[in-house]
Design goal:
With about 220 residues, this protein is an alpha+beta fold. The chain is built from 9 helices and 11 strands. It folds into 2 domains: about 110 residues, Trna Endonuclease, Chain: A, domain 1 (3-Layer(aba) Sandwich), CATH 3.40.1350.10; about 80 residues, Orthogonal Bundle (Arc Repressor Mutant, subunit A). The strands form 4 sheets. The protein has a 4-stranded mixed beta sheet with strand order 3-6-7-8, sandwiched between helices. Helix 1 crosses helix 5. The radius of gyration is 21 Å and the shape is elongated.
C-alpha cells in the first residue's frame, strides 16, 4: 500500500475526516473532507478507473516567482490513457476565490509540462441527482456476496423469460424463486450484472433494468 505524501489530520473544529471502505482498492481510503468522500463513489463505479490513491504526491510549482508545494487530493490511473491524472476536490465556493483560480492555473500549466492531467472537481459537479443518490444507494450493497450457482441461474432466467429486460420489482420476484432476496438484486446491480439509466432515473421498484452486455455476451 502506498504511503500518502501528506498525513490527514483533523486540524480544525469544523473539519470532518474519515475512512472509506473501497471495494475497488480493497482497503480503507482516507478522505479529507465530505466532498472528497463523495468523489470516491464516482471513482468506485467508473469502469475506466483502474486504481486511485489519496494524497499521492508533493508537487512543487512556481507561483508569483516563488516555489510552493501542492498536495493533490487524488491520483487516478485510467485504462483509456497512460497519463496519470491528479485531482483536487473542493467546495465550489472555494474554487471561486481569486487566489485559488490563479494557483490552479499555475499548477495546471506545470502539470501539463510534466505530462500529467490535472482537474478540479467540486461539490456542484458531484452532488447531481439522481446520479449521486443512485451511486450512494448501490454502494451499500457492493460488498454483498452473491452465491454463484443461484446468481447464474437467475441471470439465465432473466435472459430466457424476460429477454434481458425487466423492472426491479420483477427481478425481486424472480430472485426469490431462486432463493435470493432484494439485497441480492441490489448487489447484482451494484456489481453491474444489470444496467439502467443511472443519471436520469432514481432506482426504485419500477426502474427498468437491462442485463449487461457482458452477461449477454458471456
Amino acid at each position: 500500500m502506498r504511503k500518502p505524501a501528506r498525513k490527514i489530520n483533523n486540524g480544525g473544529k469544523d473539519r470532518v475526516i474519515g475512512n472509506f471502505p473501497s471495494y475497488k482498492m480493497r482497503r480503507m481510503v482516507e478522505w479529507d473532507s465530505q466532498v472528497e468522500r463523495d468523489f470516491l463513489f464516482y471513482l468506485e463505479f467508473d469502469d475506466d478507473v483502474i486504481e486511485y490513491h489519496p494524497q499521492p504526491i508533493k508537487y512543487p510549482y512556481s507561483f508569483k516567482n516563488k516555489y510552493h508545494n501542492h498536495f493533490p487530493d487524488f491520483e487516478v490511473v485510467r485504462r483509456s490513457t497512460p497519463k496519470l491524472k491528479y485531482v483536487e476536490v473542493k467546495t465550489y465556493s472555494t474554487t471561486q476565490k481569486p487566489e485559488f483560480i490563479e494557483k490552479t492555473a499555475a499548477i495546471t500549466a506545470a502539470m501539463e509540462l510534466d505530462g500529467f492531467d490535472y482537474a478540479v472537481v467540486t461539490d456542484v459537479d458531484l452532488r447531481v441527482e439522481p446520479l449521486f443518490g443512485n451511486l450512494k444507494l448501490l454502494y451499500r450493497y457492493i460488498w454483498q456476496e452473491l452465491p454463484p450457482a443461484e446468481t447464474d441461474s437467475l441471470l439465465n432466467d432473466v435472459d430466457r423469460i424476460h429477454d434481458g429486460i425487466l423492472t426491479l420489482s420483477d427481478l425481486k420476484d424472480l430472485a426469490e424463486s431462486h432463493g435470493l432476496q432484494l439485497v441480492d438484486c441490489y448487489a447484482a446491480i451494484a456489481k453491474k450484472y444489470f444496467e439502467f439509466e443511472l443519471a436520469t432515473h432514481p432506482l426504485g421498484p419500477d426502474t427498468l433494468l437491462r442485463l449487461s452486455q457482458v452477461q449477454i455476451n458471456g
